[in-house]
Amino acid sequence: MSSQVGFRPPQEVPIPVGVIWAAWRSHKISDEDAVKDLIRSRDRGAVLALQQIETLIKRSRTIELEEEILRVQATLEARQCGFIDHPVIQRFLAQFQNHQYGVQPRTLCLLLVGDSRQGKSTKAMSLYNVKNTLKVSCQGLPKGVLPSLARFDRSKHKAIVWDEIRPDQVLNHRELFQSNAFEQILSQSICNQHSYGVWLYFTAMILCANEFKMVAPGIPAGDSQWLQANLLLAELGPGQKWFLSV
After folding, report:
1. Are residues 44 and 98 in the same domain?
2. Strand positions, DSSP E, the chain
3. Which of 34, 158, 185, 218 could bridge 132 with an S-S bond, Cβ 3.0-4.6 Å?
4. How far apart are CA 246 and CA 235, in angstroms?
């Protein structure tokens, strides 16, 4: 017979898992080829190897992205013009002098309010530089809800910039914005399945907003008093910007 039912042409000899792993580790084959070869090998150890290699690939790409983000941020930071000073900002920064650590129980927040493209966020990030500052966006979140602080790393972050923040978000988390000596538990729920803790003592809180009314019809008098007592407001005059013109 010239043909046989169910006949399949001979396949290439599968490559052993160890050989694939060694070639990938030595950068002799690409990530994609390593994954394909592991699947084609049909080796009993291929599943575990595939899980491990995919985990390493994902983590490697995350690190590469983080490095690229820092590189771009550093390049942009180096190209920036100087920033103007402000007495309120100097008062705010004075709270975080080394001799105050372990002595001062809590700190005040800095609030930068002004029109769009005034340079508020860039000025805020410059106070402790990009590498030491965690920036989070508060825009579009429900009333009283803050963005996640899961990326906060106390070993490197000296400040948090809260961009586009609203009064209700601050009022709903007053203790957090005091940067006191107590751990804050976030993402709480009935079972606290996704809750996590952050210790924000002596962490500079810098708030940015186009508009931030501390006194308004919908804000109780006690809340307005708290905001005015705990937020140091720094504003510029009409047409002024936080950065110097070249």
Report:
1. no
2. 109-113, 133-137, 159-163, 184-186, 196-198, 204-209, 231-234
3. 158
4. 22
Domain end, chosen from 26, 44, 79, is at 79
Length of the chain in residues, anyone?
246
Tens digits of pLDDT across the chain (246 residues): 444 555 555 556 778 898 998 999 999 999 999 999 999 888 888 999 999 999 999 999 888 988 898 888 777 776 767 889 999 999 999 999 999 999 999 999 999 999 988 999 999 999 999 999 999 999 999 999 999 999 999 999 999 999 999 999 999 999 999 999 999 999 876 666 778 999 999 999 999 999 999 999 999 999 999 999 999 999 998 889 998 865
Question: For residue 74, what are the contacts with CB-CB under 8 A and spacing of at least 6?
Answer: 130, 131
pTM over the 0.85 mark: no
Which pair of tokens denotes residue 135? 């920036």
> 3-state class of 203 per DSSP?
coil
Please indicate, yes or no, if residue 9 is contained in any of the structural domains. Answer: no
